[in-house]
Design brief:
The chain is an all-alpha fold. It has two helices and no strands.
């Protein structure tokens, strides 16, 4: 009977060990799920940051284009004024009244 008791004890030990391993695996899975969620949040934040950086760069480019359009318009006006005084003519294209829209249309 001692042999049966010994086999039963070994079986119980194996079962307890496997139950402990299963609990540990479940705990690891829970932490992995939390880590995955945080990684997704970080990735989302990085994408938002990249979008903001791109929008800021686009705004800088639009500002530069609008500034150059205004400078060109002022030069055109100065040339037209100088023309009426008999100076050499520099013909620049007429700028539309809504410079921001023309800049946006050009960029897009």
């Amino acid at each position: 009977m001692s042999n049966v008791s010994s086999t039963s004890d070994s079986f119980t030990t194996i079962m307890l060990k496997k139950a402990a391993e299963a609990k540990a695996a479940k705990l690891k899975l829970e932490f992995a799920a939390k880590e995955m969620e945080l990684t997704k949040q970080r990735t989302s934040a990085l994408l938002k940051q990249a979008d903001l950086d791109a929008e800021i760069e686009m705004l800088h480019q639009q500002k530069e284009a609008a500034t150059l359009a205004v400078e060109a318009e002022e030069l055109r006006k100065m040339c037209n004024t100088s023309n009426s005084a008999g100076s050499v003519s520099l013909q620049l294209p007429n700028e539309p009244e809504d410079k921001m829209n023309s800049v946006k249309n050009y960029i897009e």
